[in-house]
Each structure stands twice: as C-alpha cells, then as structure tokens.
Amino acid sequence: MTIGVDDDERAFPQAEDGKALEESWLQICSRLKGEVGEVEYRTWLTKIALGPVDGDEITLLLPTRFLRDWVRSQYGDRLSELWNQVLPAIRRVELQVARPGDPAAPPLALATEDAPVAAPSIEVEEAPRSAPEVRSDLVTTLDTRFTFDTFVVGKPNEFAYACARRVAEKPSSVGFNPLFLYGGVGLGKTHLMHAIGAELVQSGNVSVAYMSAEKFMYRFIAAIRSQSTMEFKEQLRSVDVLMIDDLQFLIGKDNTQEEFFHTFNALVDAGRQIVVSADKSPSDLSGLEDRLRTRLGCGMVADIHATTFELRISILESKAAASGVVVPGKVLEFLAHKITSNVRELEGALNRLIAHANLFGRPVTLEATQDVLHDILKAHDRRVTIEEIQKRVAEHWNIRLTDMSSARRARAVARPRQVAMYLAKQLTSRSLPEIGRKFGNRDHTTVMHAVSRVAELMERDPAFAEDVELMRRMLES
Ligand code: ADP
Ligand code: MG
C-alpha cells in the first residue's frame, strides 16, 4: 500500500509544467496547421484557448457552442492524439465553451505568481463584446499557392479563367458583377477565387473579403449570439470585393440566405464586386430563394467543365516541374488516364509520388507509381470491356475502330488488332471464342495465335513491350 500522493497522478503543479503546456500547445498548433491548412486553421483552430488541466485531462476553451461542437466533431480525436503524443501525461481532451464571465485571459490553471502563463499566441474571442473581425482576417485567409500563375488553363476552364482575370483587373465592371463560378468539386473554383483576391490585394487600395458560405453562416450566427449583427453587417458592407465560396452550403439555411441576399444587394448597389462559387449554375441551385438565384444569374456566369486528358497532362507537367522531381512522361500519361475525377485527386496522387521519391531517393517509374498509388488506383478501377480495349488500342495506334473487326490484314492494322486481342485475353475473363466473335467473328485459333505472337514480340522488342504494358496498366481493372 502506498502512502501519500503518487507523483504520476499529480497534474502539473509547478511553473515549468505550465511552460511545458504552453510549449506543447504551440507544437500541436503548428502540426495542426500543417495538417489542416492555413484557412481551416484560422477559421476554427485559432479560436481555441487553453483551459485547466485536471489529472490526465486538459480542457480547451472555445468562444461559442457552435465552434465547440464543430471543433469537437472535426478535430476532437486528432486533438487528443496530438496532445497525447506531445505530452503523454495528457490522455484526454475536453472541449468547453468559455463562459462570458470568465476572465479575458483563459484560465490556465497552472499559472503561478512568478510565471504567469498567457495563452500562447492563441487569440481568444471575448465572446459577447468584440465584433467579428472581418477585413483583416479575410485577406490573410487567402492561400498563397492559389494564384493565376499556378492555374493551368485549358479548354474546360479558359472561360472561367478569363472572367476571373477580368474581375481581378477591373472589379465591378458592368456585366461581370456578380461573377458566378460553378463546376464540380476539385476543378479549381476556390483556386480562381483566391487568385482574384491575391491579385486585387496586391494591386493595393482594395479591401477583399473571402469566405466560404459555411464560414459566412458561422460568423452570422456568432454575431447574432453576441448581439453584434450590426457590426457584422457594417463590416461586410464596407468591403470592395466580397467573395463567397461554395454557396450551395446555404441551401436550407433560410436566415443566413436572407442575410446574404441583403448584403449582396447592398454591395452591388454600392458598386462593389461580388464573386460567388457553387457546384451548380444559379438556375440549378434549387433550394436557394428565387430572388437570390435571379440576382446571382444577373452578372457573369462561368462554368468550369470536367477536365480533359490534355488539361490533366498540362496540370501534371506544371506541378511536376514545380516540384523539381523528374516524373517521366509515361507516368504522367498513366496518371492522366487513370485519375479523371478531378484536379484535387490528380494533384494528391502526384504529390504522394513526389513525396515518396524524395523520401526514398528513388526515381519515379511506372512500377513504383502502381505500387505507391495502389489504393488510389484501385478506387478508380472499373471492369474493363473488350469494346474499351479496342477503342483505346485503336486510338493509341491510330487506326479506325472498325478495323478491329474488319478483314484487312495490312500489318499497320493487324498488329494493333492482335494487341487488342492479347489485352482482351489478359484483362477480361472472356474465352477465346468469345473474344474472336468480338473481333469480326474470328476463329478462336486466330485469337490464340495473336496472344502468343504479341507475347513473343514483347520479349524481342522492349519498346513494343513498354507500349503494350502501358496500355495494359491504363486499362487494367
Ligand atoms: P474546387 O474549389 O472547385 O473544389 P479547388 O480550387 O480547391 O477546387 O482545386 C482543387 C485543387 O486542384 C487545388 O489544389 C487547386 O490548386 C488544383 N487545381 C484545380 N484546377 C487547377 C488548374 N487548372 N491548374 C492548377 N491547379 C488546379
Ligand atoms: Mg472549393
């Protein structure tokens, strides 16, 4: 039986432990920032203040319940993990709303007389009194990676790009206000908005506010809670350019929509520029109030289309070049063929390859790519059909699709046809007679011959083998 207090069970009674807490928190903050990105970090996580420690549990304080719930649901687990990694004595994190009556500085229980511990560089919103900071905050939330220079232009986005440039050069021009950018996820809407913002801020003299519709709602609600809606409105209405990202978020949020509508009108009437993005065109955003949809459609509506193979290649080339890692053309082609969903995923895949190459100091090859991206590629895999194989092979060797089943026997036609048969055998579960039928009712022995002929050629001719391999990887399921 032990008598007295077990050392391990005491929290942090000494001053240096307060320091340790503070330092740990700084470390955690910097890691979180790296993980979630500057914008997220500023929006949510800078609002956290350190609270008291009780045993192995630390309390983190947030100014509002809304924020507390959000941080808990989005970052709760990660915060616990990080605390535990950085300071193993902490095993649990409790998130609480700071009471308005609390002293302005968060009650960091461990502060001692001689070493008062202030909340480390974490700003605490003195909830009810301070009005939300709009402008300064909004300018700094711009992501510096998203500029016009780093935006790769191609057919699917050239119109949106041109409109964005135009607004950045001459905000509030007739016909371009509001600018409404729309398109699917990961196609560059946010990138273009930040680029407009960056350009305008650089040109000076213009105040720019950028926020997601979600953040707009959060701020609006926070303002209502703290009875500072007037300040909120005034601050918003004093900017020269207001950009709201992902407007579809406001669907079903009637009060916030209403507020946005009034802000919108006030700004446009005062000759200020509005830029809005959404996943659909104004007319397709059912669930938004009609009068808002009508106004949104009154300026310039620019659509960003799904990427094309060419654009994907250009984007990959540009990002690979910027990374300084040599990525062979074949690998870029392979990625552009495989990951067609959106630029974000394409970029994610390339970044992973590059990180891998840097980490292990190995060159990027097709094999390594398949290996490193195994999970991503699998998610994008589909069952390949004989028709698809024929189409891809015909495209690659520049022959007509009909020649896959024609009787022509010229080598320029017969060889690709044999490759297609070979791939059909490799990649589908079709029998030789079935494959034969799809190639203009050829006999199964013809297919068999094609398969062994291609295998033989691949052994003899490495360039040919590589071609066929590339084709296979692209089609593979
Ligand atoms: P959205 O807002 O439409 O969902 P984002 O603007 O967040 O998409 O783009 C997702 C990612 O893809 C970002 O990292 C962005 O920089 C990148 N990206 C999208 N389009 C392009 C492009 N045309 N050129 C370069 N990068 C792009
Ligand atoms: Mg976006």
TrEMBL record:
CDD domains: AAA, Bac_DnaA_C. Residues 175-378 form the AAA+ ATPase domain. It is found in: Cytoplasm. Residues 385-454 form the Chromosomal replication initiator DnaA C-terminal domain. Keywords: ATP-binding, Cytoplasm, DNA replication, DNA-binding, Lipid-binding, Nucleotide-binding. Belongs to the DnaA family. Plays an essential role in the initiation and regulation of chromosomal replication. ATP-DnaA binds to the origin of replication (oriC) to initiate formation of the DNA replication initiation complex once per cell cycle. Binds the DnaA box (a 9 base pair repeat at the origin) and separates the double-stranded (ds)DNA. Forms a right-handed helical filament on oriC DNA; dsDNA binds to the exterior of the filament while single-stranded (ss)DNA is stabiized in the filament's interior. This is Chromosomal replication initiator protein DnaA. It comes from Acetobacter cerevisiae. The lineage of its organism: Bacteria, Pseudomonadati, Pseudomonadota, Alphaproteobacteria, Acetobacterales.
